[in-house]
């Protein structure tokens, strides 16, 4: 049931030092790997541990191989980016053990007569596919999912369980939407008349590119009039909220609990740490990295790393610093007074 | 398939300057509006754009009309609040195109024999209506929703998809609960005995007024002994958490990711920016406006705008400022020392 | 339909002063309690109110009993921890009125032939139990829940409605998972190759101990290679996100909206206030208490209370203090300059 190292190298590249017929059955971290595992060294600070690893084989960089290759007893696959190699090999091993969802429509599912479901797609138990929806080749629609009227799910995209994908929204190919996510819910749009809110119908869509992952219980609002856009390769973790009319550039990643208010335009290749928040109608450049727990309250034109959270302290120390923060203007006044007094003193001295 | 301007004015008021028989088919923003659209000018800074708009008709204020009415080629509807007019007209156009959920109970739904479902209500695919629940006239209960025992859903209220509305909770008329929301989950109540938590049964309800909107994946806890109360016209965005025994005043609005801890009493006509947090057992006056990402840790007795988040900075700058914030007491000490030294100096000088 | 005080004392202990045959039908707070209720005094500041309470009986400490026992007209149960006594008694009364979910599998549920469902378990309407899953004695699997392949639900554990419990994950006995929670969703793990994310399959599990409560719409990621661990007695409120490979120690409690990034190791008997955030790969000692809205960005080795949020202020005041916070380095420079100048002045004076 193992895989030959030679087969791995044929699939994923890299220079093999060792027996191509050696078989491994899976990937394990350095500390746990045994004689049937391949492991990887992606952080050179674990070099000594890697040299002693009991793994049958090791994925490592040319630089690390030069240093520990001779010392390490097993086979080696040398590649510029062992972590990426690990990811690809892990996908390969996972696919070997994966239970594929069977093609076809489960008898308990409801599929409207006007929906188009590819014969290779799997529609799970109690799933609901509404009128006019299009489910592409190889899609997996999990148990309890609801795909709304005229929605489009691209080939190979999976909806896990209890996902709601609302009417007319679109997702491209090879995406994953985790359980409990809601795509295309109404944006938070109201006109206020004397204190009372009048709902503005949200008639735009959510349009999602290829290779997009959306985390569990994440919510993405449909556009008010235009569309909310999520470009190719975006990765959204769990519990994220994306407001209406946002535009998120390709290959941007957001960690859990991030919130993005309406109409924010976010660049490509950005990252957002957990619980970072972005106010509405801002524009964030490409390659901006926002730290966890940080609030973005102005547009950011320049790439780079941005942070803004109050540092944690023992409660008593925080109480003190917070009290001073509340009165920073008075501290500034005191400094100004000091400066003036000293100016007077030194001027007197000069006289 | 269009609507006469005359019909719009008859329904929603406003002064029409132009042909009442001119037909429009929908609403579009200034930039996109064409000859079949009506558009609106709600922010005077777009006045020049509005004057050049290709829209068949424009909704605008008397003041803006006085300035650009002559210049603009199309018909005009003049009204004090064009944004509210837009909201109402947009609702009207949306209703024309809306697919109404059909009245009746889908054969796949489960409705307990003791539940009361109005004949005009729509119970969707795989929905569950438990014993004793009451579903009012014109309600729409979406696919996968669960309405608990003895719950009451007021006339015209919609639950989209996969909503859970727990036992004995109540919502009034014309509400909307978006997908994945959970109403009436247990509050977080425990007694602690030597470090171990003993659950306190949560036997209160959630009681929600009329015209309340609740966002996707928002959660509202039922009361511990008494009820959690959400008054009329409250608007809650997605991913909000409302703790047990909270009371939220009429026409208060909360943006996405807000959290309100248990037993907070919040006034009417308040607003809370995204990810604002309110501690438990606080009282917030009417017309308090809390900014995004701000933590309310004390009661607020006075209306007004409140804010409290750490300003974002380039990471290196934040590192510096955060290190100083951690040591603000020592900075204050330094200033006190300086003040004393200078007092000594100036006293010496006076001598 | 009432319960004799004598029966309560027999079940839950305490010294009864009064008639053991007196019957009460439920528990109520001091302010609301009438002649058919038992009430409790857990906070001595309400001692005067308790003395006047109309409750048939009162649960109170020996100290409070010494002070008001003679004054209060009803029966008393004297016990060291009235709040814990209240919790236990309230559970007892709640159980009397509870509608037990009927044992057995609802005809609309889907249970794979290879799943093992105990005969005393209740599988609700439209629930899904996948291949190889094990559902223990007395479990309640609510409507719309999905229990994945080879998952294990311990005896007496309840999943409310629309819960997703993914493949191979495990929960112990007497747990509660509230509606919309997702257990065992993929962790957020990617290798980055030239800006493009390559998914790392998440093949670990979530392993949850006994007596664990998980709130509505809370999400817990499965481990990447190893498991995510939630120990016995942990209590998680709603809308919490726990990243992959976290380990949460026994009897730790987290309030709503908390986020814990991947691989954080959190001790026993900790508490986290609402919306607190913990960065990844940190280690938090036992008995650490983190305040609401606080970001934990470094490991914490010492027990105690920690806080870190920007204090709320009127918006205009916040604008001022935030502007100064942004420029704290320049304020520090000014102070340094002042110190130097004064040093020069005083040195001159000394000459």
TrEMBL record, chains A, B, C:
> Superkingdom of this entry's organism?
Bacteria
GO annotation (BP), single: lipid A biosynthetic process
Entry annotation: catalytic residues: 244 (proton acceptor)
Q: What SUPFAM superfamilies does this protein's entry cite?
A: Trimeric LpxA-like enzymes (SSF51161)
Q: Which InterPro entries match?
A: Hexapep, LpxD, Trimer_LpxA-like_sf, UDP_GlcNAc_AcTrfase_non-rep
Q: Does the keyword Cell inner membrane apply?
A: no
The reaction(s) catalysed by this protein are:
a UDP-3-O-[(3R)-3-hydroxyacyl]-alpha-D-glucosamine + a (3R)-hydroxyacyl-[ACP] = a UDP-2-N,3-O-bis[(3R)-3-hydroxyacyl]-alpha-D-glucosamine + holo-[ACP] + H(+)
Q: What is its EC number?
A: 2.3.1.191
NCBIfam families in the cross-refs? lipid_A_lpxD (TIGR01853), PRK00892.1 (NF002060)
Complex formation: Homotrimer.
What is the protein's given name? UDP-3-O-acylglucosamine N-acyltransferase
Q: Which organism is it from?
A: Janthinobacterium violaceinigrum
For this protein's source organism, the top of the classification is:
Bacteria, Pseudomonadati, Pseudomonadota, Betaproteobacteria, Burkholderiales
